[in-house]
Amino acid sequence: MTAPHDLALLRRAVALAAEARDSGNPPFGSLLAGPDGTVLAEDRNTTLTDQDITAHPELKLARWAARELDPATAAGTTLYTSCEPCPMCAAVVRRAGLRRVVFALSGEQLLDIRPGSDQPPVPQEGPALLDEARSVVEPYYR
């Protein structure tokens, strides 16, 4: 259940989405807050103006957190975002060790609003060369 203080921070994320839209970018905005609700950082989608398909605000904030916050501090943060993070962003948020994500619009709701992607799925094949790949990766994690 979303708490009242979450709603105020979500409204700021929606306002950041409007700022992104007004600057010619897709309408997505996010902010990262500490455990007490203090805003640590905020960002907007800049995929078009930066000519960078990965310039999603969730991804930019997760990268910022991984670079600027120690793991214990990152683990106490909440990412507030205007729309549910896409799979790319969700993976980076998880890798950055953020504690929680609160979003205003689900990915499914977004698909009801916007036209579908004109990009076909990219076929993937694998796994292959398991022993060779494992011999490179496994020593790193020991």
Descriptive notes:
This protein is of the alpha+beta class and 142 residues long. The chain is built from six helices and four strands, in the order αββααβαβαα. It has helices at residues 4-22, 57-68, 71-74, 87-96, 107-113, 130-137; strands at residues 29-33, 39-44, 78-83, 100-105. Strands 2-1-3-4 form a four-stranded mixed β-sheet, with helices on both faces. β1 and β2 form a beta hairpin. α2 runs parallel beside α4. The N and C termini lie far apart (40 Å). The model has no long low-confidence stretch (mean pLDDT 94).
So how many helices? 6
Q: Report the order of strands and helices.
A: HEEHHEHEHH
- Give the overall form: globular
Low confidence ranges: none
Largest sheet: 4 strands, mixed
Mean pLDDT: 94
